[in-house]
Write a structure and sequence with these properties.
The chain is built from 10 helices and 7 strands. By secondary structure, the protein is α/β, with parallel strands linked by helices. Strands 3-2-1-4-7 form a 5-stranded mixed β-sheet, sandwiched between helices.
Length: 325
């Protein structure tokens, strides 16, 4: 995502001056024709009238040309204003980033119900990485896609701007994202995933930048056993939730530059329920408790008003908010 370069002011003024000189040329040419015909005596007043009529026609053409030139000038001014505003917003974003370095860790559920959530996350991260690689002095990202038997990991790696490494690091990141697909049914081990993700950050004493943890899923830390082995259990208890939240809170309290984003997505599991005509909450296990769990994650860093509707449709906003606080 790159901002377009500012327009060349010289090229516009050259175009505008060409229009003005063109209008003046029409007047000069017609004046010369008119003078010659009148002085020649020609065929009397009838020819003079024709020339006068032609002159009026050309005057109208010149007026239209002036109006078009004026419109072009106004359009160019508006374009310049919009580009200046975009540049101003870009500069504001750059100055709002509190640090020259950023580490981002994403813990995301990759069980079968996460189709919609993973798709939205991939689109969000590709945009975010491309933009932030240009602004941050260093950008490092890690992803831990959790599943009871088929987890996927992208170790903490630096992503460079495209012009620094010919886009190789962004291409490597995009390649991993392209393979980040939901896999079979299974338990989503949320608590162990949080330990894995929080343990991937550098020690804040040796890392002076911002560190952001993003957790994306459709179920809280309430599942147990093994769905693959047929011994699935569901324990919606405050103790299980408290254990998971404590892992994140302990990590967050390690530095004032640490932020948490909780994103609850249930479009995928609702779609499975609808397509399979299953009973409500047959796939979205403990949906109300799970939604509340992700809201509590969000509240560790954000105000209440920012933690009610974070979903797969709005992942990019909390990411930028987290790094510009």
């Amino acid at each position: 995502m790159r901002l377009r370069p500012a327009p060349d002011a010289g090229s516009f003024y050259e175009s505008f001056s060409d229009l003005i000189f063109g209008v003046l040329a029409i007047f000069v040419l017609l004046s010369m024709v008119f003078v010659v015909l009148v002085q020649s005596g020609g065929r009397g007043g009838e020819d003079v009238a024709k020339v006068q009529q032609e002159l009026e026609t050309q005057k109208e053409a010149a007026r239209v040309a002036r109006e078009q030139a004026k419109e072009k000038l106004l359009e160019s001014r508006e374009t310049a204003r919009q580009l200046a505003q975009a540049q101003s917003q870009s500069d504001a974003l750059k100055s709002a980033i509190q640090t020259n370095s950023l580490q981002l860790a994403i813990a995301v559920d990759r069980t079968n119900s996460m189709g919609e959530g993973l798709k939205a996350l991939i689109e969000t991260l590709e945009t975010f990485a491309d933009v932030m690689a240009q602004y941050a002095t260093t950008l490092e990202v890690t992803i831990y896609a959790y599943h009871e038997s088929q987890p996927a990991r992208y170790g903490m790696k630096r992503i460079h701007p495209r012009d620094k490494d010919s886009g190789r690091s962004l291409a490597d990141f995009s390649k991993f994202l392209a393979g980040l697909l939901p896999t079979s049914n299974g338990i989503a081990p949320v608590t162990s995933a949080l330990r894995e993700a929080t343990g991937s950050f550098a020690d804040p004493g040796s890392f002076g930048g911002a560190q952001v943890l993003m957790v994306v899923g459709d179920v809280g830390p309430f599942e147990s056993g093994s769905a693959v082995g047929g011994a699935f259990g569901l324990d919606v208890s405050s103790e299980r939730e408290a254990e998971a939240l404590a892992v994140v809170r302990t990590w967050r309290d390690g530095s004032p530059r640490r932020r948490v984003i909780g994103v609850y997505t249930d479009k995928g599991c609702r779609k499975i329920e609808q397509d399979s005509r299953l009973e409500a909450d047959a796939v979205c296990h403990a949906s109300q408790a799970s939604r509340e769990f992700f809201r509590k994650l969000c509240l560790m860093s954000s105000a209440e008003r920012h933690c009610r509707n974070i979903s797969e449709d709005a992942m990019l906003v909390p990411l930028f908010r987290a790094i510009t606080k």
